[in-house]
Every structure is written in structure tokens, then in C-alpha cells.
Specification:
The chain contains eleven helices and eight strands. By secondary structure, the protein is of the alpha/beta class. The protein folds into two domains: 202 residues, TIM Barrel, CATH 3.20.20.140; 60 residues, Orthogonal Bundle (DNA polymerase, domain 1). Helix 1 packs parallel to helix 2 and helix 6 packs across helix 7. The chain starts with 6 loop residues before the first strand and ends in a 6-residue tail after the last helix. The structure holds adenosine monophosphate (AMP) and manganese (II) ion (MN) (3 copies). One manganese (II) ion binds next to loops.
């Protein structure tokens, strides 16, 4: 195909920490001119059959998707998987295992928040949860906004939910090797999500990209709602250096919270191989 394609290969539904159903997202993507779509819920493929059917009903091409939480050298990194078989047993089991510790972690987060005077955060966050196996920091952020502690979710993360803050609980997610292997083993393509978000040193970033490639990873997000315009160029260059294909996705979560709408980012810079070129046979 071409780099000039309105592909949006990263967003979230109520199956993880988004606020819209897969059907509402499909309708919104289509209305915004998306031609190729993927729903990439955190550590979940439970919405994939619904999303594929909704895309078909809208006359939009579809790639299966997920976004796996990984712990790499003590930091959380996200790996997007695209174009896999959503019923693959190892992938489904691996994701179940990755989701496993979330409820306990959420209870500990709630204890941390109680210590600074915010009571009932676990129950409060649960009200926003669409999937009981997937309680995330985003749901806590929504509760703290609703209860008037903060004005917006970004502020909650800054003050309460990031490293060193009262509601932050370190967590051990999947390994980089497992995440990439689950995706590729299910016939899909693994993509490093929003690399600029990790604030790695040049050596750490080199290690991430090198190990990712060694495990069989093939893509990197270049144009994402989490990158600034100069960062598109930085990671276009990284993609070329490492011989990785490039992806594009809004990381849309909610009409109220997301600053980047589905399907509205710039196209991929030229001289890159788009991930959808490598996934032609997996497009539905
Ligand atoms: P978790 O998987 O529970 O650690 O939650 C991670 C999610 O929190 C991400 O996928 C984002 O949706 C959200 N998030 C992380 N940092 C921020 C931030 N600074 N502002 C708003 N949402 C954030
Ligand atoms: Mn999220
Ligand atoms: Mn992410
Ligand atoms: Mn995401």
C-alpha cells in the first residue's frame, strides 16, 4: 500500500481503559475518515471479535490489536501487537497472566491514597471499570476527577499516580521476550508503542530496540498521539536505523480526556515501510 493511508492502529475501549464501546469507536473512526483500524486494549483481546465485526459494518479495514504491559530494565514499556489470531491459546493465556496482578495492585494503590486522606479509591475506581480484570490507573484518575480532588486526569497522574507519588505501586508486568513471542507466535507483528514516553537514556533506548529486534519485533510507533511533531522525525530516523516498520495511532481513550482524535494525526513521514505493508495478508 502506501504511507498515505488513514490508518489508526492504537486506541482503547471499555474492555480496557477507554470510555467508548468497540462499536462506538468504529463509528467514530469511520466518521473521521479512518481507512484501516485496530483496537488495542491493554493486556486484552476480549473486544477483538466485536471490533472486527463493527469495522466490517462500517466498511472499514481491520487489523486485530492489543497493547501489552512489559517491564524492561525496571521500567514499564508498552508493546502493541497487530494482525494476530485473537484466539491463539498462548497469547490469550499470556495476556490473562499479565492482567493477573491488577486487582491486588489496585488495592495497594487505594491504601497509598488513603494515607494522604483520599478514602474509598478502590471502590470509587471500580465504578468506572468496564472489565473487572482490567482495573487501571486511568480508572483511579477518573474517580479523583469525579470527586473533585483534581481538575483533570493528567493532573491526577502528576500528583498521585506516577513513580514516587502516594498512589503509585511498582508492578512487574510481562517480559519483553514473552510479549513479543506471544504476538509473533499468534501470527502477528510486534510494535514498540510511543517510544518517546519512556524517557530512556540513549544507552537504555538502544538496549530496548536491540533486544526487541532480537526477539523478533518488527515495528515502532512513529506518529502517535503521545509524540510531539519533532519526535515523529526522531523516531522515523530510529525506525530506519533499526530496519523497523513504522506505525501510526492516536492512542485515543475518551472524547472528554484524549487530546488526539481517532484518525486525525499527520501521515507517516516518507521513506518508511508502514506496518500495514508487512501485514497485508492479515487485514480483514
Ligand atoms: P496502568 O496500565 O494501570 O499502569 O495504566 C496506564 C494508563 O494510564 C496508560 O495506558 C494511559 O492510558 C494512562 N496514563 C499514563 N500516564 C498518563 C498521564 N500522564 N495522563 C493521562 N493518562 C495517563
Ligand atoms: Mn491506557
Ligand atoms: Mn501505552
Ligand atoms: Mn495505549
Amino acid at each position: 500500500m502506501t504511507t498515505i493511508l488513514n490508518a489508526d492502529l492504537h486506541c482503547h475501549s471499555v474492555v480496557s481503559d477507554g470510555t467508548l464501546t468497540p462499536e462506538a469507536l468504529a463509528e467514530r473512526a469511520k466518521a473521521n475518515g479512518v481507512e484501516l483500524w485496530a483496537l488495542t486494549d491493554h493486556d486484552e483481546v476480549g473486544g477483538q471479535h466485536r471490533a472486527a465485526a463493527a469495522a466490517k459494518a462500517q466498511g472499514m479495514k481491520y487489523l486485530t490489536g492489543t497493547e501489552i504491559s512489559v517491564t524492561f530494565i525496571g521500567h514499564t514499556v508498552h508493546i502493541v501487537g497487530l494482525g494476530f489470531d485473537p484466539d491463539n491459546a498462548e497469547l490469550v493465556q499470556g495476556l490473562r497472566q499479565t492482567r493477573g496482578g491488577r486487582t491486588e495492585r489496585a488495592m495497594e494503590m487505594s491504601e497509598g491514597l488513603a494515607k494522604v486522606g483520599i478514602k474509598g479509591a478502590f471502590e470509587g475506581a471500580l465504578k468506572f471499570v468496564g472489565n473487572p480484570e482490567l482495573i487501571s490507573r486511568t480508572h483511579f484518575a477518573r474517580f479523583l476527577v469525579e470527586s473533585g480532588v483534581c481538575k483533570e486526569t493528567n493532573e491526577v497522574f502528576r500528583k498521585f499516580l506516577t513513580e514516587g507519588k502516594p498512589g503509585f505501586v511498582p508492578h512487574k508486568w510481562a517480559t519483553l521476550k514473552d510479549a513479543v513471542t506471544w504476538i509473533t507466535g499468534a501470527g502477528g507483528l510486534a510494535v514498540i508503542a510511543h517510544p518517546a514516553r519512556y524517557k530512556f537514556s540513549p544507552n537504555e533506548e538502544f538496549a530496548l530496540f536491540t533486544e526487541f529486534k532480537n526477539h523478533g519485533g518488527q515495528g515502532v510507533e512513529v506518529v502517535t498521539g503521545s509524540h510531539s511533531v519533532p519526535e515523529y522525525q526522531v523516531y522515523a530516523e530510529t525506525a530506519r536505523e533499526f530496519g523497523l516498520a513504522a506505525s501510526r495511532g492516536s492512542d485515543f481513550h475518551s472524547p472528554e480526556e484524549s487530546h488526539t482524535e481517532l484518525g486525525t494525526l499527520p501521515f507517516l513521514p516518507g521513506q518508511l515501510t508502514p506496518v500495514w505493508d508487512l501485514l497485508a495478508s492479515r487485514i480483514q
